[in-house]
Specification:
By secondary structure, this protein is of the alpha/beta class. It has one domain (about 5-40, about 75-295): Alpha-Beta Complex (phage-related protein like fold), CATH 3.90.1690. It is about 25% helix and about 25% strand. It is built from seven helices and eleven strands. The chain has helices at about 10-25, 30-35, 90-95, 100-125, 165-180, 200-210, 250-255; strands spanning about 35-40, 45-50, 75-80, 80-90, 160, 195, 230-235, 245, 255-270, 275-290, 295. It has a five-stranded mixed sheet. A four-stranded mixed sheet has the order 1-9-10-4. It has a two-stranded antiparallel ribbon with strand order 2-3. The longest helix has 28 residues, at about 100-125. The chain is globular, with a radius of gyration of 25 Å. Mean pLDDT is about 85; it is low at about 1-15.
């Protein structure tokens, strides 16, 4: 007679939890997937590098060689993948009694926990945007900094502001954002078309973005910013006063989420202890490379 092992204990439990968890997770709302570019990874880490860019084209004299230019290497950014997991113990009696409704609820709770983990992790670089304590860009500085520089220390630029959210201050930050240059000091096309705010600033931001007339004014001036910004309201932003303008095209190039291992379930059983463990796991890294896609303002 074959030996009965703990690994043979109620595989159907894993299947129930797995199916419900994946379906529930896929249906949960999230903001991070609309901000980050999500990439797969098959390596222990991912690296991004940057170069200085090129100057404008030179006029070419007929029958002569075109002018040559040597780009200068700037910075390197490494993304190290981190595992995340959660395990729950289930009694043998629940398995015996086929309490599938309870198991489905367990799967829902695991899916919600995974969703909350990813959302809070994704929002963390914005919570750290003005200090750089945990998240820095390729230049080793915070996302919003008063002195972003080239690898040689030159071309200092500032995307860190201390202005409260208002239509006038959005104008100030937006104009400054559009004037950022590349590592070569050349003008680049920057279009701040996104506005990211916490829940506490949602109403103010909505009025700035959607009002027909100029917000906060008794005059009937048209609202210049009506329809200009995609509004992102994120309840995982921890600072109630900080807000950000975003160039969404550049953001999707430089705000990256690497999924080394997608969300999955696992389980094992112990007949002697009378329990079965059910868990979920994923492994990822995330962060930003260049900073020019973002300008941040924190008045407090």
């Amino acid at each position: 007679m074959a030996t009965i092992t703990s690994g043979q204990m109620s595989y159907i439990l894993d299947e129930v939890v797995s199916a419900v968890l994946i379906n529930e997770f896929a249906e949960l709302p999230n903001v991070f997937s609309t901000l980050y570019t999500i990439k797969t990874s098959a390596r222990a880490r991912e690296r991004q590098t940057s170069i200085s860019g090129l100057s404008q084209f030179d006029e070419k004299v007929e029958a002569s060689a075109a002018a040559e230019e040597q780009p200068i290497q700037q910075f390197q950014k490494t993304f190290n993948h981190t595992p995340f997991a959660k395990t729950v113990k289930v009694s043998r009696e629940l398995v015996d009694d086929e309490e599938w409704g309870w198991f489905e609820n367990l799967a829902v709770q695991l899916a919600n926990a995974a969703n909350r983990t990813m959302e809070s992790q994704a929002a963390a670089p914005f919570g750290d945007a003005f200090t750089g304590a945990s998240y820095v860009g390729e230049d080793g500085l915070s996302l919003c900094n008063n002195a972003h520089v080239n690898v040689d220390g030159g071309n200092s630029q500032d995307n860190n502001f201390a202005l409260a959210l208002s239509a006038a201050n959005v104008s100030t930050v937006r104009v400054a954002h559009r004037k950022f240059t590349d590592y070569k000091g050349e003008k680049v096309h920057i279009n701040p078309n996104g506005l990211l705010v916490p829940l506490d600033l949602e109403q103010t931001a909505w009025e700035i973005v959607n009002s027909n007339l100029k917000p906060g004014s008794a005059n009937n001036d048209a609202n210049f910013y009506q329809g200009m910004f995609q509004l992102y309201v994120w309840n995982w932003l921890t600072d109630t006063n900080a807000w950000f303008t975003l160039d969404t095209m550049l953001m999707r190039m430089h705000l990256l989420w690497y999924m080394r291992s997608g969300l999955e379930t696992y389980g094992d059983g112990d007949l002697f202890a009378g329990v079965r463990r059910i868990g979920a796991y994923f492994r990822k890294s995330h962060g930003f490379v260049d900073w020019r896609w973002c300008a941040g303002s924190n008045p407090s």
